[in-house]
Amino acid sequence: MTQKMNPWHDVSHGENAPETVTGIIEIPKNTRAKYELDKETGMLILDRVIYSSMYYPTNYGFIPQTYCDDQDPLDILVLSQIEIVPMCLVEAKVIGVMQMMDGGEMDDKIIAVAANDMSVAHFNDVAELPEFWKKEMRNFFEDYKKLENKTVDVEDFQGRAKAMEIVEQAIIDYKKKFPKQD
Q: Which residues bind Mg(2+) 1 per the record (predicted)?
């Protein structure tokens, strides 16, 4: 009998977490498709085509074996010069976090750079990013749900140290929520 694999539960968050993590991409940058992991099957589902005429400014996904207050794995934005295909595993160097409120719930987005993309791998902290990139990320997340009559408030960008704390806590929370059965 074949055992099914679920990317959230069966892929490691990375040997060097929280400095470098495995990111699993759900949504490539420059698309309007909102894909997300179906928690039961491990497949991607098309949640919706975003209502606004905006495109994801970064590759968007999650860090496996993490858990957050929204009952999902921890979100990650992976900066790269390329559009990374969905379900691709990416070695991602954590450089910061964008903290936001989505529908009244805290929703952290870890910001990372693709470790194997030399056009961005030299960034070590979100403070080093061009100001325009941060404005673009903020603008996208504050505006992309407006036509759905939903509110998202980006609170602030925090540096690498805060992001690593959030990753560590999400790993701890995952282990509490999903204890290993031996």
A: 70, 75, 107
